[in-house]
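Researcher: Please predict.
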Amino acid sequence: MRDLLVAGGGPIGLATALYAARAGLDVAIHEPRAGVIDKACGEGLMPSAVADLTALGVALDGHPIDGIRYVDGARSAEATFRAGPGLGVRRTSLHGALRDLVSEAGIPTVPAAARRVDDAGDHVTVDGEPARYVVAADGLHSPVRRMTGLDGPPARHRRYGLRRHASVAPWSRFVEVHWSRSGEAYVTPVGDGSVGVALLSARPRPFDDLIGDFPALAERLSGQPLSRVRGAGPLRHRSRRRVSGRVLLVGDAAGYVDALTGEGIALGLAQARAAVSAVAAGDPQRYEADWRRLTRRHDLVTLGLLTATRVPALRGRIVAAAGRLPWVFDAAVDQLARTPHSGPPGPRGRRGEAAAR
């Protein structure tokens, strides 16, 4: 019987498996999609995510990011990361690098989705395969979250995301967040000749229609080769809890507020470490408290910003306020860049409940 099955082979699922293997656990991944997986996302890695991925041995190929710049017409405000640069990395590049590490570690991947998870008391079964624990990293619309009864109530306010790449040299070493009445546009440098453009809005609209709400950005991208559009949403998903018996939720599967603050990978990596540490200690319930501690600050900041953006009068003042109070903006960006760490899961060898046979 394996110690752990990871449902989902995206970046956080792969990282969970790597942390588990390095903690001495027998782990396998369930992922039905073959090859490198793309997804609509901002593709900006916070400094803490860069540090965590480097510590895992991930070879990151991207473009340095010095901080965040808010732009609203002629007004702008920027804050530099105090902890060192972040990195703009194509989603496919990140996923491919993690897949290579998983392959080198000899971690097996079952080419199938987890369709049924049953609690057997002292273990769980995934489609009949026994394991001591399951970590679900199967994304925003997590089937495992649903089938284990951990789905929270639907969100009242919905937001949607679209992403394309433009073949143009980055004009800044900052992630630019452009504001309009309809939503936000994130421009992330991901290579010497490429930027990612992610659009967030409360109403699903075609990319070419929505980009028109950002005239300065639309003019800069006019005539540039663009990649195909990828979409995601609705973005807000809740979970009632993050642990049900021997099933633990990490990453987007554990609940997602919004892409507004751009630290999904950093948070997911911290959650993966905490979940593996709890599994290795044979104490899955410990992860619930760890998850709350890791996400508290992010959720407060993101929900606060989202609440402000729903009020037209406040939304129009966000960039101006950031410019008038640069120390507040700088401190907020620095806090988001320093995602709390759970500490690496220690090696367990043959000791402990998770490694017992």
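Model: The two ends are 8 Å apart (CA to CA).
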